[in-house]
Design a protein that fits this description.
about 15% strand, single chain, 8 helices, alpha/beta
């Protein structure tokens, strides 16, 4: 069995090798193998060269690299990586160091026990470490999760989480249209509509970045998320 790890990357030359090394050293339960799909969103730094160098130095690790010809956004890159995945399960992994690959197994357990089709990693449950950063970001995340739950009738604690694990046949049947940071509310709305879907949530750690350290999401993305919650739950079923 195989886990496909989809990494959208934009100007991550300084950290891409660190996250790849963490993934390499993570031992998966159930004897799962790993394939890494990096989708470079037309970076203007040395991300492409950094990935090529890492591939040459770590030939025992399956890394598939794709590059968007123009900058299209995180959502577009995720959708492209998901389409290319061949594993039994697909997980989303940001190229920064905010989420710890050692916790893949925490998300995989409900899946491997055949209890879940989709597993979300929540930053707001459990006793794992969380870096203390922005109060209004936390309020924003909770507000967006609340709006999403009202629309989907789910009881998630962290709809905006960067760690989402899917059975491949589930996520590849979904048509993803959002190019930027609307991926989270869009995929949540569309997953929730699948008849008989089994969604689980597990507590994870969170090592957030400041804007000086490279954090990219801002208030405009929050407004887009509200738009996507309304659009994909009430007006667009595709």
């Amino acid at each position: 069995m195989l886990l496909s790890i989809v990494i959208p990357a934009f100007n991550e030359a300084s950290t891409i090798h660190l996250i790849l090394t963490k993934i390499k050293h993570t031992q998966l339960i159930g004897g799962l193998g790993k394939e890494i799909l990096i989708v470079d969103d037309c970076s203007i730094d040395q991300t492409q060269q950094a990935v090529a160098r890492y591939q040459q130095e770590n030939t025992d690790l399956t890394i598939r690299y794709f590059r968007n010809e123009v900058n299209r956004g995180k959502g577009f890159s995720l959708a492209r990586g998901i389409r290319e995945a061949v594993g039994d399960f697909v997980i989303v992994q940001d190229a920064d160091l905010e989420y710890d690959p050692e916790e893949y197994n925490t998300l995989l357990k409900p899946m491997l026990y055949n209890n879940a089709d989709v597993v979300y990693g929540s930053r707001f449950m459990g006793g794992n470490p969380h870096r203390i950063l922005f109060f209004w970001h936390s309020i924003g995340n909770l507000f967006l999760t609340f709006l999403s739950n009202v629309a989907t009738n789910l009881n998630l604690t962290d709809m905006e989480t960067g760690y989402k694990l899917f059975k491949r046949e589930i996520i590849q049947q979904i048509s993803l249209k959002e190019n930027r940071f609307g991926f989270e509310p869009e995929v949540t709305a569309k997953v929730a509509r699948i008849k008989g879907i089994r969604i689980y949530e597990v507590g994870i750690s969170y090592y957030g970045r400041t804007y000086e350290e490279g954090k990219k999401i801002n208030w405009k993305d929050g407004l887009r998320a509200i738009y996507c919650i309304i659009k994909y739950n009430y007006f667009s079923k595709n």
